[in-house]
Amino acid sequence: MAIRPVGGYEATGRAADRTAVEAIGLGKRHRRRWALRDCTFRLPAGRICALVGPAGAGKTTLLSLASGLVRPTEGTVRIGGANGSGPAGRAKVAWVAQGGPLSPRLTVAETLRLGRELAPGHWSERRAEQIVRAGRLPLNARVGALCAGRGAHLALTLALARQPELLLLDDLPAHADPLVRHQVAALLLAQAAEYGTTVVLTSPPLAELDGLCDHLLVLAGGRIRLAGAAEDAVGAHALVMGERRGEGLPPRIAAHPVVDAQLTGRHFTALIRPEGAIAPGPWEVAEPSVEELLLAYLRAPDVPAPNAPGGEPAAPRPRRLLGGTRGHRPGIPGMPRNAAPGRPGPPGGAPRIGHDQHSGKGAAA
Ligand SMILES: Nc1ncnc2c1ncn2[C@@H]1O[C@H](COP(=O)(O)OP(=O)(O)OP(=O)(O)O)[C@@H](O)[C@H]1O
């Protein structure tokens, strides 16, 4: 684990009223190729945000820009109101990255002492002790003898004791055993609630997001595909499941923007962004889980952002009046909504409906 630049956290005002990260037209180009482009979003303070996207989507680039380690080619990113590229912005961010150097020869106590010395004026001894106690870190153990989960917990202690406003967390929970992952999740929730720290988790296990992440940021191809509060994002989509009678989706479903559709045998499952009421028919309509929503976006990296091209957060929407049979989690045996994370859809399953689904092409007659 490597701890990147850190700084002080001002516990003033209601977290939800403050903006932790604001990106406007943010972009980074390497030679002629854009790693990130047109990236516009606002992340309120005190949120736990899942940053999700396929390999090469631009996640690390976004973290590098947010941490101030890399300067944008275009646009701006502000951290707690300060320019993210300047010292004031950088001082508000901690980045716990995978594979960085915690010295294996030092003990836990020596590592913490070093952390305190390297963060004069920012270090909270009380917070460090709390986190060490919560993670049951043995103070006299050598860092090299700690299991991966405890090593991760130590890296997190170093980062949080420095009281950052924004914590960037790279893959951490995925590498720990379930108990440590649970401890880390509890720690992050407490940190966000009590200290207003904003946490950005890169590629967290999708099955563990419900109840942990309340904000979503989906990238693909260097552009934002979805950004906003998880609740709003879920409310702006619907999962429609039913029997199919033609080649593609029923026209009354394909009339809405389709994010992803899975066709399996005689059934279909589609994640749509309803534009108005969904016409009734031989299908069920349900609210997607966060996992289902993200899986659909990961399966459809080309889908345009709701407010393309800027990809701004979707505004909170009132609950729609849905047609069809609206249920909470009806589930259809063998359908993708029950698929395990990382295994989108049943084996030998349905073809993914491509881009032209958004215009409704490919719908069944
Ligand atoms: N220093 C660089 N020079 C050239 N191209 C780069 C550089 N850094 C990133 N890229 C390219 O920019 C794109 C985005 O890379 P980035 O590492 O941000 O993606 P990512 O979502 O973090 O991917 P992964 O999950 O595989 O780490 C990729 O196509 C990558 O090859």
TrEMBL record:
<dbReference type="InterPro" id="IPR003439">
    <property type="entry name" value="ABC_transporter-like_ATP-bd"/>
</dbReference>
<comment type="similarity">
    <text>Belongs to the ABC transporter superfamily.</text>
</comment>
<feature type="domain" description="ABC transporter">
    <location>
        <begin position="21"/>
        <end position="246"/>
    </location>
</feature>
<protein>
    <submittedName>
        <fullName>ATP-binding cassette domain-containing protein</fullName>
    </submittedName>
</protein>
<keyword id="KW-0813">Transport</keyword>
<dbReference type="InterPro" id="IPR003593">
    <property type="entry name" value="AAA+_ATPase"/>
</dbReference>
<dbReference type="InterPro" id="IPR027417">
    <property type="entry name" value="P-loop_NTPase"/>
</dbReference>
<feature type="compositionally biased region" description="Low complexity">
    <location>
        <begin position="330"/>
        <end position="342"/>
    </location>
</feature>
<dbReference type="Pfam" id="PF00005">
    <property type="entry name" value="ABC_tran"/>
</dbReference>
<dbReference type="GO" id="GO:0005524">
    <property type="term" value="F:ATP binding"/>
</dbReference>
<dbReference type="InterPro" id="IPR050763">
    <property type="entry name" value="ABC_transporter_ATP-binding"/>
</dbReference>
<keyword id="KW-0067">ATP-binding</keyword>
<feature type="region of interest" description="Disordered">
    <location>
        <begin position="305"/>
        <end position="365"/>
    </location>
</feature>
<keyword id="KW-0547">Nucleotide-binding</keyword>
<keyword id="KW-0046">Antibiotic resistance</keyword>
